[in-house]
Every structure is written in C-alpha cells, then in structure tokens.
Amino acid sequence: MTDLTSTPSAYTGPRRILSGIQASGALHLGNYLGALKRFVALQGEGAPVFVFVADLHAITVWQEPDKLQAQTREIAAAYLASGLDPARSVIFPQSAVPAHAELAWIFNCVARLGWLDRMTQFKEKSGKHKERASVGLYTYPVLQAADILLYKATEVPVGDDQKQHLELTRDIAAKFNTDFNAPGFFPLPEPVIQGPATRVMSLRDGQAKMSKSDPSDQSRINLTDDADAITAKIKKARTDPEALPETVEALEGRPEARNLVSIYAALADQTPAEVLARFGGQGFGAFKPALAELAVEALAPVTAEMRRLMADPAEIDRALARGAEQAAGIAEATVAEVKDLVGFWHRP
Ligand code: AQP
C-alpha cells in the first residue's frame, strides 16, 4: 500500500459518522455487537450519523431479485429495532442514491490495481475460483470508499474485518486530493473499531469469525433465533475443559473462552476484566447459562420489534424514503464538486 495516508488530513469540515450493513439478510450476533449496537451508541455523540443498507454491495454475490427488497427492509428493521431513530439519524438504501455508483466509477479510476490485489476479503470470498467471482466483488472496497467519502464521513464504526478496506478508502481520498490539487477536499476517515466485540468469533471455532456464510448454523446466533435456539447454541458452543481464569491475560491461547467472555462483556456493557471478576474460577457449566440468559434478554426485544416492523413495512419505508432524500441532497452536492474537480463538462 502506498504511504499517502501518513500525510495528515487537511480536511477542516465537520465530524460525520457513517456505516452500513449489506442487504443480504441473515443478521447475526457479530453484526449486532460489532455494528448495530455501536451505531446506536454513536447516535448520542454530537455528530450526525448516516447508516445505509448496502444493497449495491449485496449484489456482488447473487441475490434472488424477489427477495432483495425484503432483505433491505429487514436490515432497516434491525436498525430501527436496535434503537436508531430516523428523526436523528439518516437511514437509507444505498441504491436509492445514485451518486454512490457515480462516485465509485470515478474512484475506480483513482484506485490502483495493486491496491485491490492486496485485499484479503476478496481472496477469502472468491475462494479457489476467483475467475468466476463478479467484477463487483473485486471492486467492492472502491464502492465502499465512495459510500464513505460522498458524505465526507470522518468516522466509520466497523468490525475488525473492515480495517483493510478503510485503509484503502484513506488511500483513495489522499490520492484524489493530490491528483486533483484539492488538499483537504476529502477527509481521511478513521475506522472506529472499539469495544470488546469488534471480532465476534464462531461458536464452533474460536479462530474463525462469526459469519453469515459459515455453512454451520450452530456457529452463529441469528437475530431471528428464538430463546430456545439461542440457549441451545450457547450450551453447545465449543469450549475447553478449564474453568474461567481470573485475569484477561490468562485467556491467551484459549480463543473459545475469550470469545464467550467478550460476548458477555459486550452484551452487558462491561469490560472482559469485569466479567472475569465475577465468573473467574467458575466452569462453563455455570457461565454458559448466565451468558444465554443475557443474550436472550438483549436480543429478544430487538427480534420482536423487527418482527413487528416487518409485518407492516410502511413504517420502514417511510424512514427509508426520508433518509434517501436527506442523503441524496448531500451526496449530489459532493458529486457536483467532484465532477468540477475532474473537469467534466457541465451545462454553462
Ligand atoms: N463476527 C463479527 N464480529 C464483529 N463485527 C462483525 N461484522 C460482521 N461480522 C462480524 C460487522 O458487521 C458489519 C456489517 O457486515 P456486513 O453484513 O456488511 O458484511 P460482512 O462483514 O461480510 O458480514 P459477514 O457475516 O461476515 O458476511 P460474510 O459471511 O458474507 O462474510 C461490518 O461493520 C462488519 O465489520
């Protein structure tokens, strides 16, 4: 990667927070703790929060056309049910703001092939048959850079897996500002990767990320799981035979134990040290039921509210339409400035 981003940002605009989740449905505990719960916390931070449903990103892998709209509404329902307030935050579907695709094209001409070649997520997602992957899957991080920079976002709350993409966004911003002699035009956004659950791991393998594409449903807690399913999955979660240690350092080399302690901490708004102060010395026979109870308590209201919203999507659609209009106003202004900088023709 180039070292463009080591240059301090000359951007002087206001703070803006932005993030999104793909419209591929199937939200899990990793998305809830690593993304949703944190978006809601940031809502009170004094900077506007933009949260979109990434349906353009979703189609980088095949999506059934008759399901995509419902999946988009489902993510929006998760936003609302988790506590995002459409009166305070801008919630919108990515495809409803055409400027995302427009800026992504211009960024495709700024980003270098070598930069994209290094993206580990493409390698993981395309697997052994990369020649069969869509071109969109390859340029996915360029669209992500457009999503962020259209709104001149300064902070992007994401899970640990998105760190490399954020670095690419910063490189694209820095190169654009340099190439078009516009110092400080785009900010160099900061990834906000904080809290005990930036990387929630699979319940079956403490070395693998909890992910919707894991073939084992036992590996994850879905936001659609009921109390019995959540309890059963936590009970069956892989662990080691030792009792929980007294200190965080002693979790070293025990990935499954670390994962369950981190999940507990994130759900209870505690630090892992606080969790171990209570459970250190106890076995998983005591810890797992406590964790299951906490997970059910935290997720049941979100799941119930999502179901209510999905049963009558008018409320979701109103929030999305309002958000799309607000987002488009800002995005179109940025694209107009970008076109001027690039030198495109415009009506005299
Ligand atoms: N396991 C995780 N722990 C913490 N955060 C996570 N995120 C995803 N998995 C975890 C965060 O959730 C946000 C939205 O993710 P996404 O749906 O846009 O895409 P993703 O990261 O590709 O989600 P999955 O489940 O991991 O999908 P697959 O299986 O397709 O790869 C992001 O902020 C992400 O960091």
Explain what the structure shows.
This protein has 348 residues and is mostly helical. It has two domains: 206 residues, Rossmann fold; 93 residues, Tyrosyl-Transfer RNA Synthetase. The protein contains 13 helices and five strands. Strands 1-2-3 form a three-stranded parallel beta sheet. Strands 4-5 form a two-stranded parallel sheet. Strand 1, helix 1 and strand 2 form a beta-alpha-beta unit. The longest helix is centred in the last third of the chain and has 29 residues. Bound molecules: adenosine-5'-tetraphosphate. Adenosine-5'-tetraphosphate binds next to strand 1 and helix 1.
Question: How would you concisely characterize the structure shown here?
Answer:
This protein is mainly alpha-helical and 348 residues long. It has helices at residues 29-42, 55-58, 65-82, 99-108, 113-117, 120-126, 135-150, 163-179, 227-236, 255-268, 272-279, 284-311, 314-342, and strands spanning 17-22, 49-54, 89-93, 155-157, 190-192. The protein is globular and about 75 Å long.
Specify the CATH class of the largest domain.
Answer: Alpha Beta
Low-confidence stretches: none
What is the N-to-C order of secondary-structure elements (H for helix, E for strand)? EHEHHEHHHHEHEHHHHH
β content, as a range? 5-15%
Major sheet summary line: 3 strands, parallel
Give the averaged pLDDT, no decimals: 94
Rg, alpha carbons: 21 Å
How many runs of DSSP E, i.e. beta strands?
A: 5
C-alpha termini separation: 40 Å
Strand arrangement across the biggest beta sheet: 1-2-3
Q: Which word captures the global form?
A: globular
CATH architecture of the largest domain: 3-Layer(aba) Sandwich
CATH superfamily assignment of the largest domain? HUPs
Say which molecules are bound, naming each kind only once.
adenosine-5'-tetraphosphate
Under CATH, the topology of the largest domain is which? Answer: Rossmann fold
Q: What is the overall number of helices?
A: 13
